[in-house]
Structures are given as C-alpha cells and as structure tokens.
C-alpha cells in the first residue's frame, strides 16, 4: 500500500512514495493432519480449510486483522481434498469433496428461535452427491451468472455438473451433465467470463500416470444448440501431471488466459478463431488458437498451486521448493518473476543479503498467512478474491498495492524517494466565468 504526496513546483510534479511493509501472520489451524486446500469467500473476509483429518474449518477475519475459527466439523469419512465457497448471492454455502467418493454441500444457518441458539450460526449438510465411484478430486461452483451450479471431477475421469433448481432448497440437486474425459481428473477451473461472446467454458487437468502421451489439459465449451458440453481443445504440449489450473479473470479481453501448475508454471493464451465462429456454434465448439506465452521452471520442483489476483495482472505459484513466486507481464507481454516469498512469508534474500524484488512484497500479509495455513509440504498458495466495489473500504488494504502493478518492472523504490514527473510547460488557461456573474 502506498501513499502519494504531490508537490507541484515549476511545472514538475513530485511523487513522494511511502512504502508500508506488512508483517506475515502465522495461524495455528489445529488440524490433525495435512491441510489440502484453503478457500476464500467472495469478499476475502472468510476462509475455509480442509484436511486429511476429515474435517472442514471456517475462519472469520476480525476488525484488527486476526483470523478466528468460528466453525469446525467432520465432513467426510476420508481425506477432504478441496473446499470452495458459492457466491454470497446464494447465501453462505460451502462445497467439499473427498477420497470417500462423495461431494457435499453445506449451508450456514443462523438461529432464529428464542432459546440459547438465537443469533448463533451453525453449518448443516444440505446434500451428498454420490454419483462418483472413485475419489472426488475437485469441486467448483460455476460463475454466478450461470446460476447455482456445482462441478465435480473424479479419479474415474468423469466431470459432473449439478444444478440446484431452487436456490431456497439446497437439498435438491439434479445432475445436468456427465462428461467423460478418459483420463483421471485432478482439477477443474471455470472461465469466469460473463460475456455473451464467450459461451460457458471450463478446463480440466489430469494427473494420470498411466498415460504418458497426449495432452493432460482439456477445454470444454457449452453449445446452445445441442445443450451439451463438447471438447474444444486439448493442450497437447502438457504431458506431465497437472496439479492445478486457473483461468484468469476476464476484464474485457477477446481471448482467455489459463495458468497451469505441473512440473513447472505455464501460461497459455486461448484465442477464439473468429472466422469460424458462426459455423462452430451450430456444429460444435469454438476453435481455439493455443499460444503458450510463458513457461517457468524456477521452482525446480513440482508446482502445486497457481492463483490470479482480481485484476489478472499478477499470478502466484507455489511448489515443493517451499517458495511462493509472483509473476507479472510487462507492456510487451513478457512475463517474469517479480517477487519470491518463503514459507514463513518473509522475502527470499539474495546472496548480498538484500530482499529479492522487495517492491513486490508489499501488502502480502493475507497471502502469506494463507500459505502458512496450507503447510509447506503441500505447497499451496492463494490470492483472496475481492469485491471491487468495496475497494475503498477498510478492506482496501487487501488489494494488490500499486507497487505490485505499476513498479514491478522498475528498480525497487526507496521509501521517501521523490520521483519527478514533468507536466506540460504550457500555462493553464483561466476557466470561463459563469453567465450572469
């Protein structure tokens, strides 16, 4: 977070930048086994964690920035792989998936009776989805403009999409689509674009070790005419096990950006072929031109998580090297590492003892506490999602600081350093007087 002081002198605007550093905060999660996943709610004020101890915990952030566990309960009879929040438009709803071959939907209920439970909240199971015959490896809610829909993928290679026809009755879910990917599935990601020019799309990754050929990432797109999902593309260059995938938030782009965590970090650009658009919508999915725009092996190990910030300008990745690395593209779309964090949240120092890419470490308290929750052996890392209209509120400090976005390609800025910015040398013309004055 930066404060900018403007001092106009003789046609020069001086920008005094004051960089405020945040201290990493470690949270004692009190799980009895490895934490597999952490998920923020839409506003970034609540977290949910899941573990091999078969439980899910919900954490709320207080006014002073501390995280407190407000709910904890056993959810499954096996390791819980993933947990995710629904959009708050549908209430406080969680979904979890497990090695026990099921996925579950949970809803927070606030007591309304006059007894001791009045005003207190508790979580109840609304439904259990039992269609999978193998471990359910990932669960994701679809973008809110599609309604309340839930997607699961399983080790049996099947992606299942469920819909709640009545959002007021979450005990009723219907299986809308069942898609066979023919490879063991490990992760899924929805394209968040709500543009009418982009039909609903999701990507699924595979960690199938029995298949050493062919692409391990498949892209599926919804066809309005057939009312089914069809494979639009397979990323044939991704042949190693995929641990995580993440579509970047689409802020008006005509193409899609997909990050992949495998033995390295890869960023792909998926460009719809406009010349084939009319034909493809009637006969099949849109043809995509696949371009790999970045590939990094800096982790020197397996990469377990990739996560975008809210503006899709910064990508975080984490791996078995015990570090979180931040990636950003410059104006020429050249990606490079702009910051490295160790597992305890401190910046990785160079041989000279100076922090590496110090300007990118600003404002990392929430992110680093996130990594501490996940545990170093799992190598997980996430950006909290933010509600853009609330950026000016007390939660504004969660936004990526300007030093991350504007100055990551420049030399690190020293505190209190004044930077000149020359204004136009032309004199300002006086404002016209209002009529009648």
Please write out the topology.
Blueprint: E1 2-9, E2 12-19, E3 35-40, E4 46-51, E5 55-61, E6 67-74, E7 80-85, E8 93-98, E9 103-110, E10 121-129, E11 136-141, E12 149-154, E13 158-163, E14 174-180, E15 185-190, E16 201-206, E17 217-223, E18 228-234, E19 244-247, E20 256-261, E21 265-272, H1 277-283, E22 288-296, E23 303-308, E24 315-319, E25 323-329, E26 335-342, H2 365-374, H3 402-405, E27 417-422
Antiparallel strand pairs: 1-2, 2-27, 3-4, 4-5, 5-6, 7-8, 8-9, 9-10, 11-12, 12-13, 13-14, 15-16, 16-17, 17-18, 19-20, 20-21, 21-22, 23-24, 24-25, 25-26
Please provide a written account of the structure.
This protein has helices spanning 277-283, 365-374, 402-405, and strands at 2-9, 12-19, 35-40, 46-51, 55-61, 67-74, 80-85, 93-98, 103-110, 121-129, 136-141, 149-154, 158-163, 174-180, 185-190, 201-206, 217-223, 228-234, 244-247, 256-261, 265-272, 288-296, 303-308, 315-319, 323-329, 335-342, 417-422. It has 437 residues and is mostly beta strands. The chain has a domain at 38-180: Methylamine Dehydrogenase, Chain H. A 4-stranded antiparallel sheet has the order 3-4-5-6, covered by helices on one side. A 4-stranded antiparallel sheet has the order 7-8-9-10, with no helix packed on it. Strands 11-12-13-14 form a 4-stranded antiparallel sheet, with no helix packed on it. The longest helix is centred in the last third of the chain and has 10 residues, at 365-374. The chain is globular, with a radius of gyration of 24 Å. It starts with a strand and ends in a 15-residue tail after the last strand. The model is unreliable at 1-22, 357-382 and 385-426 (pLDDT under 50). GO terms for molecular function: structural molecule activity. It holds the Pfam family WD40. Keywords: Cell cycle, Cell division, Centromere, Chromosome partition, Kinetochore, Lysosome, Mitosis, mRNA transport, Nuclear pore complex, Nucleus, Protein transport, Repeat, Signal, Translocation, Transport, WD repeat.
């Amino acid at each position: 977070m930066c404060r900018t002081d403007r001092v106009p002198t003789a046609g020069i605007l001086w920008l005094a930048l004051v960089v405020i550093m945040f201290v990493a905060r470690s949270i004692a999660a009190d799980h009895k086994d490895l934490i597999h996943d952490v998920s923020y709610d839409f506003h970034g004020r609540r977290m949910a964690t899941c573990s091999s101890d078969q439980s899910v915990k919900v954490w709320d952030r207080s006014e002073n920035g501390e995280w407190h566990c407000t709910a904890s309960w056993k959810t499954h009879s096996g390791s819980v792989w993933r947990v995710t929040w629904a959009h708050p438009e549908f209430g406080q709803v969680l979904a979890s998936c497990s090695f026990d071959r099921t996925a579950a939907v949970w809803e927070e209920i606030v007591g309304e009776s006059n007894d001791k439970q009045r005003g207190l909240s508790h979580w109840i199971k609304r439904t259990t989805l039992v269609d999978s015959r193998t471990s359910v490896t990932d669960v994701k809610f679809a973008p809110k403009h599609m309604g309340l829909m839930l997607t699961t993928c399983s080790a049996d290679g099947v992606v299942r999409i469920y819909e709640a026809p009545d959002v007021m009755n979450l005990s009723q879910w219907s299986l809308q689509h069942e898609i066979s990917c023919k490879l063991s599935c490990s992760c899924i990601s929805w394209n968040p674009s709500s543009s009418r020019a982009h039909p609903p799309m999701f990507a699924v990754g595979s960690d199938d070790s029995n298949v050493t050929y062919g692409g391990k990432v498949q892209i599926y797109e919804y066809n309005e005419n057939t009312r089914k999902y069809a494979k639009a593309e397979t990323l044939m260059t991704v042949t190693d096990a995929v641990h995580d995938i993440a579509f970047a938030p689409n802020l008006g782009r005509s193409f899609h950006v997909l990050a992949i965590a495998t033995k390295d970090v890869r960023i792909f650009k998926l460009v719809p072929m406009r010349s084939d658009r009319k034909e493809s919508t009637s006969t099949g999915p849109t043809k995509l031109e696949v371009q790999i725009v970045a590939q990094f092996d800096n982790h020197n190990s397996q990469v377990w998580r990739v996560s975008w910030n809210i503006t899709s300008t910064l990508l975080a990745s984490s791996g078995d090297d015990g570090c979180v690395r931040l990636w950003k593209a410059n104006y020429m779309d050249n990606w490079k590492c702009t910051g490295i964090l160790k597992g305890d949240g401190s910046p990785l120092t160079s041989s000279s003892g100076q922090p590496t890419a110090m300007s990118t470490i600003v404002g990392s308290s929430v992110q680093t506490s996130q990594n501490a929750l996940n545990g170093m052996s799992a190598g997980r890392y996430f950006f909290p999602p933010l509600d853009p209209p609330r950026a000016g509120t007390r939660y504004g400090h969660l936004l990526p600081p300007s030093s991350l976005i504007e100055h990551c390609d420049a030399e690190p800025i020293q505190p209190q350093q004044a930077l000149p910015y020359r204004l136009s040398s032309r004199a300002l013309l006086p404002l016209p007087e209002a009529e009648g004055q």
